[in-house]
Amino acid sequence: MLGFTYSFSVWRGDVDPVFPYISAAGDNRPEACMFSMFLNICSFLSMLIVYLRYSLVAELNRSSDLLLKSFNRLNLYAGLLGASGMFLVANFQETAVIQVHLFGAFLCFGSGCVYMLGQAWISYRMYPLFSGIRIAKIRGVMAIASVCLFFMAFGFGWAAANTFHSVFPDLPTPRPWTHKLVPMPATICTVSQR
């Protein structure tokens, strides 16, 4: 779905085709309308998938493991919180309200990392009856990589903004960061979460 927005943004020359800054693809009209619509659909589908996974684990567990039952419910909240962050990113474009947009992105990716770690733990906990050790290990590796990349993206973005503002204190942070490798960790983090 979002590939359409990306393709349209590249065709119009609004983003760099190699390393696009994700929010820049949905910042100008008409891309902003398509970006919001498709990301809202993705957010709804993410909520649905999170709830279906919660229901599956709850049904397979059927109160036989109370710790797993409680943790599954907490992980449901983390997943729904991440999808809600995606709604914020979709509906508050970067140039409109940057604080809400960045909060939504942080919520989306941060809660997504927590959700992935939780799913990895649930898979380990459900082994050997309902989950294979291979899928549990794959989920664990992907979750740890996602957390590392999330902190790298956050850290490098913060450092880049501080460095820029130490030299140019009166200028706003330049956006979008196209034709630079700054959004690369965020892109890797996004890909690793799917």
Automatic annotation (TrEMBL):
The keyword Membrane applies. Residues 3-167 form the CWH43-like N-terminal domain. Belongs to the DRAM/TMEM150 family. It is a multi-pass membrane protein. This is CWH43-like N-terminal domain-containing protein. It comes from Ditylenchus dipsaci. Its main location: membrane. It comes from the Eukaryota. It is found in: Endomembrane system. The chain crosses the membrane at residues 34-54, 74-92, 98-117, 138-161. Keywords: Membrane, Transmembrane, Transmembrane helix. PANTHER family: EG:22E5.9 PROTEIN, FASTING-INDUCIBLE INTEGRAL MEMBRANE PROTEIN TM6P1-RELATED. One of its GO terms (cellular component) is endomembrane system. Pfam families: Frag1.
